[in-house]
# Entry
Amino acid sequence: MNSIQMDMEKMYGLSIKHLESYSFIFTENKPLNDALTIAKAKHKLISDNSQKQSIVKKGIVTDKRNQIQVAAKSAFKVCNLLVAFAVSQNNQTLKEQADYNFSELTTGRENECIKRFRLILKFAKDNKEALLEYGLTEDKISSFEQKIEDADSSLSLPRQATTASSTATKTIATLYSEMYTLFKDTIDRLVMQYDESHPDFYYEYQKARTIISGSGGRTSKGDNNTPPAQ
# Structure
């Protein structure tokens, strides 16, 4: 949610909480009680979708980074074995091609890291028979290859996250539109009748319906449709 939506979410939450606290005043007012029930449900959906936005984005970005790190650790181990083998064979070309430290393996964009891992995997496969006595077994090569594939697959997840986040954003926008209509056309008008019989309740409701900016200082009446308490 953006800052304006966060301010609105807080305003609606305070308004609902105030109505719940004074529900004994309008126990016989079925339309107001029904509207309050709907408002509570929509407010919860706004909160749920907001959390979904945050979790999806943070979770997928974290997963992508983790997969790259896991593959890089395996690549680093293979690099060390390749360099040791290259030195024993006086193969300066292979030594230079495989001599990466961990920082170098994870430098640059994720797709560049994957390309680097695949090159190291190729060197390992090309020399797998000779590297067996160095401890690089077929199973270890297969495990390294799978980690590369997992890391590569994780690169598409941010696009999926964007889609999921976009859906949640549209849902939140729709819910805010519905909440605006519900309060402006129904709840505000039903609460108005209590301005004289329960002025404190009415006055506090008006305060709750005021949007207070998260940046502090500035306030606005938001979508309030109620006249001042008498």
